[in-house]
Amino acid sequence: MVHRVKREWMEARLKYLNASAIKEMLPTTETGRKRTAKQIESARIKALARTFVSHVTDDALVSTGPAARGHILEPYAIADFNDAVPSAHLYHWDDVVCTDGVLGWSPDAVSVPSPEDVVETTDKYCAANIGEVKSYGTEKHVAKMFEAKESCEERWQLACGMYLWPNVQSAYLIFYDPDCDVRLHWKEYTRDDLEDEIEQIGKVIQGYIEWRDKLTTRGLNLKANSETSLNSDEMLAREQAKQSMNPQ
């Protein structure tokens, strides 16, 4: 099973912080262990490094196995969820990055139709509901069914959506496995439920911006890309062309 994403979407999402990066920069872990200043700075460097990517390789655009399965099953999951919770009225969104210039979020489902021919947007859509789909294997799917919603780490993706879009009032974690006796289950969050997470996201972003703006490349030995610089895919293509012209 193979799924290929749009290059424009992948390159757009790399320019911004995401929920995973936010979690790594929190002052404490999910288990309550305090992070050191060195650990937080390491997470900031890691997040900043992603923004330096100027070209996404062809291989990085392709997912296989469970990752591909998750992408492919999203529209089926949303259709099943809408049958179960018609009041949510979610539409499938695919390969769209919503951002405020620092944080990026790619929704799976929103209660308004996805914009056409848009890869990146700063618009704050007037959507009441959002959804995040997870198509795990059966073991994890069932484990998530019994996990308290307050401890589900996936809630941070919903909190990012609520942070960017103030009009969102309800958010759903949608767990989908059509090969399980319980094919669909979900957890619902209100804005009040995620109030603390939303506040923490704002603090993490502010700390990251202040740290980032103090960095300088002055005095470093480096060479930046130019418009004529070859990327790795182009270099590999040249080498393959040479080999085809000069077979052993």
Which key terms come to mind for this protein?
248 residues; globular; alpha+beta; 3-stranded mixed beta sheet; 5-stranded mixed beta sheet; Lambda Exonuclease, Chain A
Briefly, what is this?
The chain has 248 residues and is of the alpha+beta class. The chain has helices spanning 7-13, 19-24, 37-50, 65-84, 138-146, 155-164, 195-214, 232-245; strands at residues 2-4, 62-64, 91-92, 97-99, 104-105, 109-110, 120-121, 129-134, 170-176, 184-190.
Mind explaining what this structure looks like?
By secondary structure, the chain is of the alpha+beta class. The protein has a single domain, classed as Lambda Exonuclease, Chain A (Alpha-Beta Complex), CATH 3.90.320. The protein has 8 helices and 10 strands. It has helices at residues 7-13, 19-24, 37-50, 65-84, 138-146, 155-164, 195-214, 232-245, and strands spanning 2-4, 62-64, 91-92, 97-99, 104-105, 109-110, 120-121, 129-134, 170-176, 184-190. The strands form 3 sheets. It has a 5-stranded mixed β-sheet. β4 (97-99) and β5 (104-105) form a beta hairpin. α6 crosses α7. The two termini are 34 Å apart.
User: Order of SSEs, N→C?
Assistant: EHHHEHEEEEEEHHEEHH
Rounded Rg? 20 Å
Helix content: 40-55%
Please count the helical segments: 8
The CATH topology annotation reads as: Lambda Exonuclease, Chain A
Strand count, sense and barrel status of the largest sheet are: 5 strands, mixed
Number of strands: 10
**Proportion of strand residues:** 5-15%
Strand order of the largest sheet: 3-6-8-9-10
Oligomer: single chain
